[in-house]
Write a structure and sequence with these properties.
By secondary structure, this protein is α/β, with parallel strands linked by helices. Helices cover about 45% and strands about 10% of the residues. Helix 2 packs across helix 3. The longest helix has 16 residues.
Length: about 230
């Protein structure tokens, strides 16, 4: 168990933690694949997405829009079809419509009363601007992959965030749903971590690679974390 009041800044992953990206991904890829006579279940689509995304993010830096375009292209290559230009753009174009989890906005509002909030996200600046409108809170810092020119789980993204936050590590708490992208690397740099296990009742990996690590705290949602920070947690 951790004492939340020892921290001054909470850093958040965005997609998968605050924004329901899996429903966003499936809302685009499932009908796209069906148009091309490819019928995959949700688990398989997300597994393949995770494979392609991780491969593209570990090579030479590409903007996230281009990463998503190439993810769609790779689906076409694997399943024998040639995506149209609109289809190639469809994942990135859909991000503006991806919505927060039901508990996200209220929890962020509550936490913002006590802590500075920071985003560390594998995203482009312009694409995050769409999501920021849905999140409805003011973030003290926003660190994107476009700014870092690298993608989590790279150490670089977290080092850039730590430099900008300019606080001792023991005053920073990182909160994320992806063990692969976030928890392992944050812990390796000495940050305390909270794993938001949003897939506790589903397949354990979803749209991220499977990975094992021991966070300082595991919660099922952000509502639970916000309640822990209140003077009289329920």
């Amino acid at each position: 168990m951790i004492e939340l009041n020892q921290y001054k800044t909470l850093t958040f992953d965005c997609y998968g933690t605050l924004i329901d990206w899996e429903n966003g991904i499936l809302g685009v890829l499932k009908p796209l694949l069906l148009v091309h006579d490819t019928n995959l279940d949700d688990k398989e689509i997300l597994k393949i997405f995770a494979e392609f995304e991780a491969e593209l993010e570990t090579g030479e830096y590409l903007k996230y829009r281009e990463v998503l375009n190439r993810v769609v292209q790779k689906f076409g290559e694997r399943f024998g079809f040639e995506p149209t230009t609109d289809e190639l753009n469809s994942l990135a174009d859909s991000i503006q419509y991806w919505l927060p989890f039901p508990d996200t906005v209220e929890a962020l509002r509550a936490l913002s009363q006590k802590f500075k909030l920071v985003i560390i996200s594998n995203i482009d600046d312009d694409l995050f601007a769409f999501s920021a409108k849905h999140l409805q809170v003011e973030f003290d810092q926003i660190i994107t992959a476009e700014q870092a020119k690298s993608y989590k789980p790279s150490l670089n993204n977290f080092r850039l965030a730590i430099q900008r936050i300019n606080l001792p590590l023991e005053q920073i708490l990182h909160i994320a749903a992806s063990v692969y992208h976030d928890i392992v690397t944050a812990k390796s740099l000495g940050l305390s971590t909270v794993w938001v296990n949003r897939r506790a009742d589903k397949n354990k990996t979803g749209a991220t690679y499977p990975q094992i690590s021991q966070p300082n705290l595991e919660v099922l949602d952000l509502k639970t974390l916000a309640a822990m920070s209140s003077p009289n947690p329920q």
